[in-house]
Write a structure and sequence with these properties.
Helix content: 40-55%
Structural class: alpha/beta
Order of helices and strands: EHEHEHE
Radius of gyration: 14 Å
Largest sheet: 4 strands, parallel
């Protein structure tokens, strides 16, 4: 599928695993330059390597908790510096712990 995103620059918060990772993988496959984010350095390195292996797109990363407002600003600035700007910003920071829905 061609989403018309080739050449765009994207920062995806909370993207070392789960839905954030899947989003980064699809964007990279569509030709976006991506910078991923997460709290764990090892997970980030492994996820960036996997995206590069599967898509051929060089993938950057910034470590930190994007749910902290001041740190989130710095993460975005760092990603923009790596990419030379940002066209797409995905503000995924995980969510509440999983559990049962009760009415």
């Amino acid at each position: 599928m061609d989403l018309g995103l080739s050449g765009k620059k994207a920062f995806i918060a909370g993207s070392s695993r789960g839905l954030g990772f899947a989003t980064a993988l699809v964007l990279a496959a569509e030709g976006c330059q991506v910078v991923i984010n997460g709290r764990n350095q090892d997970s980030l390195q492994q996820s960036a390597a996997r995206i590069e292996d599967e898509t051929g797109t060089k993938t950057g990363y910034v470590q930190g908790d994007a749910s902290e407002p001041e740190l989130a600003r710095e993460l975005i600035k760092s990603a923009a510096a790596q990419l030379g700007g940002i066209d797409l910003l995905v503000t995924n920071t995980g969510g509440p712990p999983s559990g049962k829905f009760q009415s």
